[in-house]
Amino acid sequence: MKEVRTRYAPSPTGYLHVGGARTALFNWLFARHHGGKFILRIEDTDVVRSTEESTRAIIEALKWLEIDWDEGPGVGGPYGPYVQSERLEIYRRYVEQLLAEGKAYRCYCTPEELKERRERLLAEGKAPMYDRHCLHLSEAERERLSKERPSVVRFLSPDEGEVRFVDHIRGEVVFENKVLDDLVILKSDGWPTYNFAVVVDDHLMRISHVIRGEDHLTNTARQIQLYQALGWEVPEFAHVPLILGTDRTRLSKRHGAVSVGYYREEGFLPEAMVNYLALLGWSYDDKTEIFSRQQLIEFFSLERVSKHGAIFDVKKLEWMNGVYIRETSLERLAELAHERLSAAGLVPKELDEGLRRKLVQIMEPLQTRIKTLGEIVPSTRFFFSDDLEFDEKAVQKFLHRDYVPGLFARLIARLLELDPWDGAGIEQLFKGLAEEYNAKLGDVIQPARVALTGTSVSPPIHDVIFILGRERTVERLRRGVDMASDALAAAPADKPAAEA
Fold first, then answer.
1. Is there a common fold for 1-73+241-327 and 85-240?
2. CATH T-level assignment (fold) for domain 85-240
3. What class is the 392-490 domain?
4. Domain 1-73+241-327 is of which CATH architecture?
5. Whole-model pTM?
6. 3-state class of 467 per DSSP?
7. CA 178/CA 214 separation, integer angstroms
8. What is the β-pairing status of strands 5-8 and 37-40?
9. 204-246: pLDDT as tens digits
10. Cα separation of the two ends of the chain
11. pLDDT per residue as tens digits for the range 113-155
C-alpha cells in the first residue's frame, strides 16, 4: 500500500460537532493504524460564516480528544499553507488552466436570471440544472458582459459517460455524468467553491484516502470529474454512515447537544468520548465495547464500518463515561474535581497537598456513584460550604419527625467521645443507635444525612462524617436539632418503637 495520508478538513463556521469529531477520529485511526500521516486543514472559503473563534474552538476540541495531527495549523508541513484562505492564488492558477484548456467557462448570469430559469425548469418537471447559456455566447457578447457584470467560472461537466468508483464501505458507486450540471468552481469575488478547493488541496497535499460522511457522495462524483479534467490521480474514498438520533432521524440540535465542547463542559472524559465515537458506525465484534486508544488504533479498519446509520444515545455515552470514571486513578479524579470545585469558588485555585488528600478522600466513595464529572460540584458542595442548600422534600420527610432532636443529641454525644475518629467507628455508632431505637438503619441515617448535606442522597454517611470532621459534623447536627424542633408543631408524630 502506498503511504497513507488522511485529512480532516472542517469549515470554521461553528463548534466541532459529534459528526465532525467522529469523521476526524476515523481518519486519525486509519492513518495511525497504517503508520501514515493525519493532516488538519481549515476550509474557510465561506467568508461570511467563517470565524477565527470557530477555528480556535475546533482546534481546542480536537486537542481535548487527543486527536493530534502531523501537518496543519500550529504544526506546519511540506504542503502548506493548511488554511484555504491563504491558498487563493493556488486555486486561481488551476482555474486558469481549466479555462485555457476549454474545460471551464465564464458565466455572467445574474442571480435573478438563474432563479427564473430554475423555477421554470421545476414547473416543467425537469431537474433545475444550468442550461449553459453563457457557454454559447459569442466573443462580442462575452466582451460586452465582462464590462457590465461580474462573472463566475463554471466547470464544463462531460455530457456523456459516468463517474464510477469503488467505495471502501459501500462498494461500487456510479453516477451518470448527465445528472451532474456545470458546477461553479470560482465565485465572482475570486474565492473558490468547496468542491474545487478540496480537489486542489487533496491532490497537492498527497491525500491517499478521503474518509467522510455519506452525505458527500454526490460531491465525490463532482470531484472525480475535476480530478480527471486536471489529469490527477483520484484518491480512494470511504463514506461513513450518518449519525442518527434515537428516533433514527439525522442527529441535530433538536436531539439535544451535538457539540463536543458541551460534553466536555458536562464532565465527560476525552477517552470515553473517543471510545464512544469510534463505535458510531464501527465495531470490532458483536460484544466488545470498551477499547483503549491503542486498541482502537490496532483494531480499526474500514471493512468493519457499517453502511447503516449509527445511533447516538446519550444514555449509552453516560454509561461508558461512568465505566471510565471508575477506572480512573483517584489522584487524577482529585485533580479533575479540583478544576471544577475551584471554578465554582468552593476551593482555592492552588491545589496543595492537604487539599489533594481531602479530594482523594471525597472522590473515593463518589467514584462509583457518578457518571460524569459534572456531578462532582453538586454532590460535594456540602464538604466545602456550610451554607447548605436544603432539599425541602428531604427536610419534610426526614427531619420533621419528633424523635430526631433526641436522636441527634445522642449522636452528637457519641461523636464527641468517638476515639479513634475513623469510618469504621462511625459506621458502628449508627448501627448501635438503630438497635437502641429498635429502628431500621435508614431511619437513623437519613435524618443525619439531610442535616449534614442538605439532601437525602450522598456518599455513605460514615464517609461524609469522617471527611467533614468532628467539629463541623457536630455543628451541623446542632443546627439540625433546631430545624427539627422548630418544625415539630407542623409535623405529625413519628416515633421509632423505643420511644413510642
1. yes
2. Rossmann fold (3.40.50)
3. mainly alpha
4. 3-Layer(aba) Sandwich (3.40)
5. 0.91
6. helix
7. 21
8. parallel
9. 999 999 999 999 999 999 999 999 999 999 999 999 999 999 8
10. 84
11. 999 999 999 999 988 999 999 999 999 999 999 999 999 999 9
